[in-house]
């Protein structure tokens, strides 16, 4: 038991009430077509303090520099070998927001793709950013910001952050807008973030009750078709009111998520357990029903009620016993097991055994 206590990792148990709360439509669904678009580009960071790519191991950096110089009218003599220490080849990534227009700026991330030691103090040269269709949608350039902190203890230096990735706030300028067909034919689509037939039906009823009959119709468990007013101004106002509409979603499926490395357990709602017995190593978990009879008073015309009050018994070989009464909930079992020093691996094995035995009525996901 002492070894258990030395390795004890208390699980982080998050319980969300099974009673669903009203949330806005924007938290339940996305509007079809309103999305970000990923951009990608290849460029060079110059001005590094000797921390750039080692050209003997990254020939593409030298080729990129030579190509750039030729484009600027500089022809290197035949047989010239560049020794570059202040240049690094990088990949530039960004996301183009929905409805972005030419002239707007977006943040970019600059990541080394060679063996540069650091991008700190470097400047990204003009880099075209392309979308999945191969078209250029933005141009990036600017000073790379590599944040972080260093520490020196007893003559030894340590760097806390990763120096091969940097940011350039507002480092790219949008050059091309993405065509968007929002509201085409005066119809938009709401796409539920979690497909659910009951929630889709509730959302359709709430929209029709708020904006009129036949405004919304569910196509399946995820997509809801909504009719919008004529005119862009009226359509924008309608979508704003639609996103602010509060709807109470249907209760979701009970789910238990466990991190096998940290032992943290998260439950979507209160998960009940059926009677079962699990033996794992020197641990045993027994859940049994304990009938309780409620007898009405004489001549009260009441009915006798029999309820099941489950008992939970957890034992370990050293003799420690923990009894839990008043409800067979998985939360109680997890708390008791952690209080006895159960390791994350033991907890995982017990939960899997309960699921396999059919006593755990919830989806078990291991991350």
From TrEMBL:
Pfam families per record: FlgI
UniProt key word Secreted: no
Main location per the UniProt record: other
Keyword annotations of the record: Bacterial flagellum, Cell projection, Cilium, Flagellum, Signal
Subunit-level organization: The basal body constitutes a major portion of the flagellar organelle and consists of four rings (L,P,S, and M) mounted on a central rod.
Family: Belongs to the FlgI family.
Function: Assembles around the rod to form the L-ring and probably protects the motor/basal body from shearing forces during rotation.
Name of this chain's protein: Flagellar P-ring protein
Organism annotation: Sulfuriferula nivalis
